[in-house]
Design a protein that fits this description.
With 527 residues, the protein is α+β, with helices and mostly antiparallel strands. 43% of the residues lie in helices and 20% in strands. The chain has a six-stranded antiparallel barrel with strand order 9-11-10-16-18-17. A four-stranded parallel sheet has the order 3-2-4-5, sandwiched between helices. The chain has a three-stranded antiparallel sheet with strand order 1-6-19.
Length: 527
């Protein structure tokens, strides 16, 4: 008798496991059909690519002396570094456009000349049909697909176009010429160039993830034209020019002011003079206080303006001009128009009040940011390098330096004992999130942007840098960000906490409260 399961007792079963069901025959045929179509398209595309290359190789000479030299000039991105230098020498959005273009170039060049070429491993085109005058003076040993020169050119042009569309027109024309030259000199097939351009455009657009575009419209603020008199010829306007701001050359600005506002009083303050005293004297005898300088100078002028109850006319003349950019002033022409028309807005001003390092009362105002701990050093390092390598790479460099060189400090935030590295407080909600706050969309909410880096978590340094690099900062337990109306900060150690307002480092603090001032600053801007 056999057991009920149908097998003989003591005999090992040899039954094989059931095979997975085979796909229907029709599905297999469709897959093979699709693969065959793909192979045919690839063969046709390759044949067309080679035919187009041969046609260009046999074409009549077109600027033979120029295109090979232009192609050579773009080696290692040197041409685009030169263009970036020209754009960076100007002011306004062209400077940020140059930084974005270089950032995009770095991404595209790395991707095209590294993993992309190793993945596709396409050989260079034969150059025996290319006239000797056109050929490059050296043999190329790297792979052909995609074109690194075309990727870099397209990336730089796309980066510039995102911030300065008008300036991007000649840059795009130059980039297109460089891309064409790579086929013309026999270095690439046309398909290599097309793929490189696509990669470059993608790299340019990718920069918006780490270097968000500043909106084309100014930050929202309450209209305040009723408190801003119209001064068509400048009578009643007193302007203090800080000769130390920016590059220190303000002759052109002063000439423009004297030509467009001939009755305005203009005083230039040199390196050895007291800017606060000059602003105070000017405000005492003017209906409108004007200031030409950077964010630190504007901070001082804002304090004087609030104390004297006079509106403020800001003429951007600093290096970065964060406040002017948020308020919607791209240059002196915008402010001149607003002063003539009498159009202005009322904006929030941050206020710090408490006990300073010496035990005396500590009071400060800020129009942009206040920072504590290692953040002032981080800002200083970032601003030192961002003109050379871009804001986001400079921010990462500064953050790494602070985390590895600055010791954390003990503090209280709203009564909670913390061990932290950095505290950032913004006058209004800043964008983007993270350690490169760039712009604000509103200046009238009476809110503060609080950002803190916690040093108590295990491996806090590595976790924080890793979160920044992977774009997961918002989920990191080391980093905290929230919007508040008021925050209290106190030192829990013998030494005071380092403090900086609008980038200007001052004495440290023992215990302070940060809020927005009940009084708003009236600032001229075009309607």
């Amino acid at each position: 008798m056999y057991p009920a399961n149908g097998y003989r007792s003591g005999v090992t079963s040899t039954r094989r496991p059931p095979r997975p069901p085979r796909p229907p025959r029709l599905a297999r045929l469709l897959v093979r059909h699709d693969v065959e179509i793909g192979r045919r398209l690839l063969r046709s595309g390759t044949a067309l690519d080679r035919a187009m290359f041969s046609s260009l190789a046999d074409a009549r000479p077109l600027l033979d002396p120029l295109l090979p030299r232009l192609s050579h000039a773009a080696d290692h991105g040197m041409l685009w570094w030169g263009v970036a230098g020209v754009l960076g020498a100007s002011k306004g959005r062209r400077r940020s456009a140059a930084l974005r273009g270089l950032l995009a170039l770095g991404v595209a060049s790395t991707a095209a000349n590294g993993p992309a070429k190793l993945l596709f491993r396409r050989d260079r085109p034969p150059t025996h049909g290319v006239p000797p005058l056109r050929r490059l003076g050296r043999d190329l040993t790297t792979f052909s697909f995609p074109s690194g020169h075309s990727a870099s050119a397209a990336a730089f042009a796309t980066g510039v176009a995102l911030d300065a569309p008008v300036a991007a027109v000649p840059v795009a024309a130059l980039a297109a010429t460089v891309a064409f030259s790579r086929v013309y000199v026999g270095a690439h097939f046309p398909g290599d160039v097309v793929a490189g351009v696509a990669l470059g455009v993608g790299a340019g657009l990718l920069t918006t993830k780490v270097m968000p575009r500043r909106p084309g419209t100014p930050a929202r603020a309450r209209p305040a034209s009723a408190w801003a008199p119209a001064l068509p010829d400048g009578a009643g306007l007193g302007v203090v020019v800080n000769a130390r701001s920016g590059a220190g050359h303000h002759t052109d600005l002063i000439d423009v002011l004297r030509a467009d506002l001939p009755r305005a009083e203009i005083v230039e303050v040199g390196p050895g003079e007291d800017i606060t005293a000059a602003l105070t004297r000017m405000a005492a005898r003017s209906r409108v206080l004007g200031v030409a300088g950077g964010d630190g100078t504007i901070n001082t002028a804002a304090v004087v303006s609030l104390a004297r109850g006079v509106p403020l006319a800001v003429f951007p003349a600093g290096t970065l001009n964060h406040f002017a950019a948020d308020i919607g002033l791209s240059g002196p022409g915008d402010t001149i128009k607003a002063v003539r028309d009498g159009t202005a807005v009322a904006v929030d001003v941050g206020q710090v009040d408490g006990i300073g390092a010496t035990g005396a009362r500590f009071t400060r105002n800020f129009v942009n940011t206040a920072s504590f701990g290692g953040y002032p050093d981080m800002v200083r390092i970032r601003e030192r390098f961002e003109h050379r390598i871009g804001k986001w790479p400079a921010m990462l460099l500064a953050l790494s330096w602070v985390l590895w060189n600055e010791p954390p400090f003990d503090a209280e935030i709203d009564g909670e004992a913390r061990r932290i590295w950095l505290i950032f407080v913004g006058n209004g909600r800043y964008l983007p999130d993270g350690f490169a706050p760039t712009y604000r969309t509103r200046l009238d909410e009476s809110l503060l942007d609080l950002r803190v880096v916690d040093a108590a978590a295990p491996l806090a340094r590595l976790r924080l840098v890793g979160a920044v690099l992977t774009g997961r900062l918002g989920r990191s337990r080391v980093y905290e960000q929230r919007t508040v109306e008021r925050v209290r900060i106190a030192s829990n150690q013998a030494a005071p906490l380092p403090f900086a307002g609008d980038g200007e480092v001052s004495e440290g603090i023992r215990r302070i409260a940060v809020t927005t001032s009940p009084a708003r600053l009236v600032v001229y801007r075009p309607a």
